[in-house]
Amino acid sequence: MPISISMYAAVLPMLLYLFILWKMDKYDREPLSMILFHFLWGAFGAVLLGIGGSLTLVILLSLTGNNSQLNYLIQSVLIAPVTEEFAKGIILFFTIRTRRFDNITDGLVYGGAVGLGFGMTENFLYFITFGNTITSWIYIVIIRSLFSAVMHCIASGIFGASLGLSKFSENSFRKLFPVGGILLAILIHFSWNASVMFAGTYLLGILFIILSVILFIFIFNLSLSNERRIITQELQEECGSGLIPLEHINILNGSLRFKRGWIDEHVRKVYCRNAIRLAFNKYELRRVKGSRRQFYEKEIELNRDVIRILLSNIRK
């Protein structure tokens, strides 16, 4: 198949998945520029880093004197999951320190974006390398687009969630969460690679990915439920001060905020955005120290000022 066709086949499904992942974040969607940055890191930075790490370990493995078939099995099943998951996840250690990373959902989204970028490049390389006939090319496109790339998204997303859990949890063992997250990501990657190495376990691998998708969606919904709780708790304080009407709480923390009629349509989107940001900024303020507190204190007052102006204009 022409390289251009393979490129479209690699890029378009991943961009569709990326858009769906971004839309799943219902309350405080991350800037598309940040999402694309992580996607491109997965597509280029993580791929190069993963290849470098794998080559290093493969060279060391060749010194053991094992036969080439055994070395290939070890490289595919053991080395690739370890090096690739670390390569994809390394950027997330920097992302969690940014002010935009303010809940566990962000870890799922940013991690998933990195995984989709990695899957895109890996798919393209597979398409042009192993798609020797139209039939084999179509088969590889289907399997890798529906399962292999999705595996990368899930594995990196779960690692991102573990970083978010570590950042916002008050558990005394929270520093161990990233260790568990990277081990779970490696396990998911290992299980998929091991299952597709043999014809007899291929269907088990597909079933495993389907169950992993269900797990990912379940974790995502749990995170969204936690965000809903944060919005409710933090904004109830603002109701007491008279800033936000009490009847708006159940609207702002649900899908009703997207409907017309409950508030002036000219201010609805801005009002919702600032109210939700106010809740998350207050939540974040409780968990930061030092100079970072000043940033969130200013953001909170800015959100309040915007909300106050918007609602006062409506009342007039």
Report what the structure shows.
With 316 residues, the chain is mainly α. It is built from eleven helices and no strands. Helix 3 runs antiparallel to helix 7, helix 5 runs antiparallel to helix 6 and helix 6 runs antiparallel to helix 7. The longest helix is centred in the C-terminal third of the chain and has 39 residues. The model has no long low-confidence stretch (mean pLDDT 91).
Question: What's this entry about, in short?
Answer:
The protein has 316 residues and is an all-alpha fold.
Helicity range: over 70%
Beta fraction: under 5%
Low-confidence stretches: none
What order do the helices and strands follow? HHHHHHHHHHH
The backbone outline, from C-alpha atoms, is elongated
Question: How many helix segments?
Answer: 11
Given helix and strand content, the structural type is mainly alpha
The mean pLDDT is 91
Largest sheet: none
Distance between the termini: 65 Å
DSSP summary, beta strand count: 0
Radius of gyration: 23 Å
